[in-house]
Amino acid sequence: MASPMRMTYLRHTITVDFSGDHERQIAGIGIVIQESTKRGRRGPVVVELAEAVEGIPLREGEKYAVLRALQIASERGFRDLKIRSDYNAMRRRLRRSYDGKARPRGDLDARILELAAEFDRIHFAYVPRRKNQRAHILARLARTLPPRTEPGKPYSGTVSNFPHAREPAQAVLYESVLLPEQDLETLNSDPEL
Question: Where are the beta strands (DSSP E) in the chain?
């Protein structure tokens, strides 16, 4: 008799962060995606994203980062998600709304919850800022990129060769390879970012 097939466990942990440039009204978002095949583990980083967006209120930046994370997860076919953010009040509101214990606040919350319903499993989790550094650095870097004003085809490159153009350009999504630790230290110490 054949043994029953075991389902492979696969969870994606997506850490998001936002950094706003109030002078230029640009929202920079950073997204770090980890993939795990073991319960209780986040697994290795498989994708890092930095994206500049204009036209959204800066107070909505972190929520927009969550929305973009869900859109990317949907495009890539992810089914089991853990969304982590250091904005705890927003995370609690989304979790309560998702669990049906509260009503969504505004259109952006409603769009997030509508997209969240497409996944088999989703958990909105808190991550302390000190453990959110990769997403934070990517968000700070994104503020220096040409803004994404509408969905478009992705541009791929490494963080070290991102253009630092200041003028608006066509829709751009920058997808990085992993940042070496020395690049993280350089980005962290650069006051321009």
Answer: 11-21, 26-36, 45-54, 80-85, 121-126, 155-156, 174-176
| Contact in structure between 87 and 136 (CB atoms under 8 Å) | no
Q: Mean pLDDT of successive 10-residue segments in the chain (193 residues)?
A: 59 93 84 85 84 81 92 92 93 90 85 93 93 91 71 36 30 39 46 45
Q: How many CB atoms within 10 Å of residue 92?
A: 13
Q: Whole-model pTM above 0.90?
A: no
- For the chain, report the end-to-end CA distance as a whole number of angstroms: 61
The answer for residues whose C-beta is within 8 angstroms of residue 159's C-beta and 6 or more apart is 48, 50, 138, 141, 176, 177, 179, 183, 187
User: Two tokens at 168?
Assistant: 């608006």
Q: Could you give the angle at which helices 88-98 and 61-75 cross, rounded to 10 degrees? A: 50
Q: Are 124 and 95 in contact (CB under 8 A)?
A: yes
pLDDT of residue 169: 26
Q: How many angstroms separate the CA atoms of 97 and 91, rounded? A: 10
State the pairing for strand pair 155-156/26-36: unpaired
